[in-house]
Amino acid sequence: TDVYSDNFFAEMLEKLLGARIGDAGTTAAGTTVVEDFAAELGSEIHQVDGSGLTRSNEASPQEVVDLLLGMRHAEASEDFIEDLALAGREGTTAGRMRGTPAYGHCRLKTGTLTGVSNLSGYCFNPDGKAMVFSILMGSVGSTETAHAYQDKIAGAVAGY
């Protein structure tokens, strides 16, 4: 679900987590599993669905960063990071960040709703240092303008 941001698949995955780990194959049971897992990693995200297509999902940039930092130490860390879109080359980030240090050096996840544009992930600078960041933008008048600012910020992070 990460590279191509397939919302239907994300929602079904959430229900599968509810069925396998939680109490039932429902969105509610799946969100409990995900929130509990995030809490184990030190993040207090709140969600009501798996796709992200609701304004009721709540997380601050710090909570997203806490989750991403926690995932760096999780058993599935390498697979998780590799499954995120490669900046400028894959999925919802294809064609973005050209000419910035982020291009080809960040693994990212986007999130978009009307008036909302988010970009979070990991950037790897030339020294190999991993930098984690989260940009959550609400009340966005232009997604294109939001992307331009996000791309500059990701470039600054990757170039640090």
Could you characterize the architecture of this molecule?
It is a single chain. The protein has 160 residues and is α+β, with helices and mostly antiparallel strands. It contains 5 helices and 4 strands; from the N terminus they run H-H-H-H-E-E-E-E-H. The chain has helices at 7-20, 27-40, 61-71, 77-82, 143-158, and strands at residues 85-86, 106-113, 116-124, 130-137. Strands 1-2-3-4 form a 4-stranded antiparallel sheet, sandwiched between helices. It is globular and about 50 Å long. The two termini are 29 Å apart.
* Mean pLDDT, all residues: 94
Give the number of DSSP strands. Answer: 4
Beta fraction: 15-25%
Order of helices and strands: HHHHEEEEH
Shape: globular
Reported for the largest beta sheet, the result is: 4 strands, antiparallel
What structural class do the secondary elements suggest?
Answer: alpha+beta
Taking the alpha carbons of the first and last residues, their distance comes to 29 Å
Please work out how many helical segments DSSP would assign.
5
Flag low-confidence runs. Answer: none
Query: How much helical structure, as a percent, in the residues?
Result: 25-40%
Q: Give the strand order, joined by hyphens, for the main sheet.
A: 1-2-3-4
Radius of gyration: 15 Å
